Amino acid sequence: MAEQTSPVFRQDSRPPQQGAASADSPVFRANQQDAETQHQRLLGAALRAYNAGQLDRADQLLASARKRWPRDGDTMHLLGLVAWQRKQYDSAVAKIRSAIRANPAKLEYRTNLAAVYRSAGKPDKAGRELKRALELDPENAAAHVNMANLLRENGDVVNAASHYTKAIWIKPDNLRVWADFASMLIEDDRWQDGLEVLHQADAWEKDGLTVARTTAAFLFQRKRPHASVAVLEDAAERHGDEVQCLTNMVQALFATERYAEAFHAARRALRADRESVLANSAMAHALSALRRYRWAVRFMEYCVEQAPQAPQYRVQLANLVGWVDSDTERQKALCREALEINPNFGPAYGQLSSIAQIEGDFEAARDYIQKAMACMPKAPGPVMQFYNMQKDITEEDDIATVLARLESHENITIGELAIYNYTLGNLFDKVKAPERAIFYYKAANGLNQIQWKKKGAVYSREQTERVVAENREIFTADYIREMQAAYGNPSERPVFILGMPRSGTTLVEQILSSHPDVCGAGELAKMTQLVSAATQRHTPRGAQEQRNYPLWVPEAKADEFAAMARQYLEYLDEFDAEKPRVTDKMPHNFTLVGLIAILFPNARIIHCMRDPVDVCLSCFRQNFAAPHPYSLELSDLGHHYRQYRAYMAHWRQVVPSEQLYEVQYEELVQDQERVSRELVDHIGLDWDDNCLQFHQKERAVKTASLAQVRQPIYTKSMKKWKPYAPYLGELFRALGDCAPDDPEVADAIAKLEAREAEQAAQPQPEDAVAEQ
């Protein structure tokens, strides 16, 4: 929304006359011209300081001007604007009113006074000033724009539209007004009207492409990425492929997690201008999202070469290099080069901190992240990263510091607020205050629920149960055996490590990847992508609903199964083309075991299991990068866990026993060598003693378990739920017979149901019932 935070200050009023000479006197005219020149110089210097954010310097210059010309309206007006920037609203109002008294004809004084009232939370007074300005000059475009913005804030879209329209008729060259008008209509779900405004900008030859980009950027800032994409797609259709438009589309598609579409938009941008740094950067990010890191590195290297003074590309390249070959020396060199360009570039320190963690140097990691915090005082990410590494936490110092940061953070987003709440939950966990920790975890998850719901990521118990039933019906033992014989690829390279998130998948992969014949590829989304593509192919064009997995599996042909297996194996080659085994530790591949078994009958599957409450609580406390909507409520977590157990109970019955190995986390940490030997034997390799020294393995680990796999095995992660037991009644009840047989479990459920009964018995006013 266009708000005049730094309005243009016009210097067209003359200072009061000085001296007593006759108006016809040459001496008077010379003195007057000299005074005017001095006045204009002072105000010009003050204005430049104001626009540069140097408010103290502006104040000094204006104080000097005020001594010589105490009743000059322009001086008082600019003094009012300085006070406004300092959020000294009462002082700003008084000074601008003084300017109005000195020169009542200057309407910009009134429009800026209205803006001060808006900032001070006084829309009624702002409206009165704007009405007065429009009474004095009905053709004042700025007053119409400000009135439209004010009405828009108050939800009066109809009258706001009227003022936007008048402003455009009066001054059609103001492209931002077109964009504000279009974005307001789109936000109000008046899509066609909003697009019509953009089309009119084209018809009036007012650079419709810039208007569309501005509209899309505003919608993106307002957390409406889907709308932003639609505006940019419409612009591309009307104006052809233009690099900035398409790279903006890539960013918006990322926000909606439409990564394949983002890749195609980036490819179009490159076709429009292959040498564009923006287009190459967009392609690098798109490829990274698709986990095509080697290709992403090539495009980001081009950006570094073509924009050597842009530190962000060096840091982004350092991050990509970490995914390809864990060349930490090259990563550190790139970050240091970025800091030579800009010594205060916070992301470089953040990346150096992550590299130090990967190398196991946690002291250096803490030092770097503190520097990142100093460079980016309002970014919550470094704060969370720092306190996750801190062992000695005090409520008086550390927690108070985080709370103070949170209170000082203006215009905080939902995502940033969620990060602060996760951080506070972790801090209270470290000071052994579970009741307060669980409060902040619930708050954080509630905020993420708001975010993810906007992206369409909502947990459906009914849908989850239906898909489990469909898998049971389709993937019978006979069907899998028959399909393996007919369509299975003989490769033994893939090793699938799966289970619930936070169940030990990272630890198992780290142990196996310490073997010289194993490449640890991390969490690969490739199987999910292959399934999504097949779903699109098997859904009839124009169908209202997709033919989702696994319903299309019995319809698939031999060449389709062969293509899926081939594409998956080719993808593994991008991580390592030589080693006999490559691990894929995407936890939720447990939903795809039936298809995996058919595609790769000789591949090995490792199922990681852990105490159900430990694994669920760990998910609840985790700020996942990708949406896991089931993890946001304790009752949904319990339900999801039961469905996961139903999946695995079925796979045990139908998948050949030699293909599936199950490892219990608690057994692994208590008897490391025995279980590790069984893991290596299961994937068909000879034992190697390096597997016992997994914590010394130098490879990129970018999951929530990074710190744990840099240490020898320990048992302190067992039964971590015990202090939280009184607050987990919803989880225990939802787990049902999967919950531990423990008196604390029964006690927590009993207390939960007693509270619910007490609340149900309380009479509620009719208006409260209606509100609920």
TrEMBL record:
Keywords assigned by UniProt, alphabetized: TPR repeat, Transferase
Signal peptide: none
Bias kind Polar residues: ranges: 1-20
Region feature Disordered, mapped onto this chain: 1-36
Stretches forming TPR repeats: 107-140, 141-174
GO molecular function, one term: protein-tyrosine sulfotransferase activity
PROSITE patterns named in the record: TPR
Keyword Transferase: yes
Protein name: Tetratricopeptide repeat-containing protein
